[in-house]
Amino acid sequence: xxxxxxxxxxxxxxxxxxxxxxxxxxxxxxxxxxxxxxxxxxxxxxxxxxxxxxxxxxxxxxxxxxxxxxxxxxxxxxxxxxxxxxxxxxxxxxxxxxxxxxxxxxxxxxxxxxxxxxxxxxxxxxxxxxxxxxxxxxxxxxxxxxxxxxxxxxxxxxxxxxxxxxxxxxxxxxxxxx
Length: 178
Ligand code: ADP
Prior knowledge:
This protein is of the alpha/beta class. The protein has one domain: Leucine Aminopeptidase, subunit E, domain 1, CATH 3.40.220. It contains five helices and seven strands; from the N terminus they run βββααββαβαβα. The protein is globular, with a radius of gyration of 15 Å. Adenosine-5'-diphosphate binds next to helix 1.
C-alpha cells in the first residue's frame, strides 16, 4: 500500500531490501558498524567487501545509537547505504522510541543532503534488537510522515518488510494516517 504526503509518498512492500533499486538503502547496523546478521549481513554480502573497507575507514569509531552515517552502495544498485543504529529494546523506558525516531530522521536528512529522491528502510530494531513490531511501526511511520510534511522530500520512502507479520503491522498504522 502507499499513501501520499505533500508531494511525497510512503510505500510499504514485502521483500528483501538488498534488491531495491532506490537511491539509498538503509542498513540496520550496530554501533560498532562491524557487520552482523539480519539486514546488516544481507547488505554487506550484496554490496561486497568494499562496503566494510569504506565503513571502517570513514567511521573507525562507529556511530552512536539513534543516528546514522553514509557510505557508497558498491555492488548494490543503490548509490548510498545509510547505516542506522537503532536502540536495543529494554522495555520501553530507556528512550527507545526517541532513539528509533532519531535513527530514521538522520537517514532522511542524509537523503536530502545527498539529493536522493528515493530511500528504502527496513524495520530498524525489530529483529535481534527486539523492538515490538507494532510500536516500531508507529514510531517509524510517524517520524517519516512528519519529516515529509515538514521538508517535502525525499519523494519516495519505501519500507521493505520481511514477512507478512511486519507488513501487516505497518499497514495497520499507515491506514490510520489516511
Ligand atoms: P536489528 O538489529 O536492528 O533488530 P535486524 O537485521 O535483526 O536488525 O532486523 C530488522 C528487521 O529487518 C527485522 O524485522 C527482520 O525480519 C528484517 N530483515 C532481515 N533481513 C532482511 C532483508 N534482507 N530485507 C529486509 N528486511 C530484513
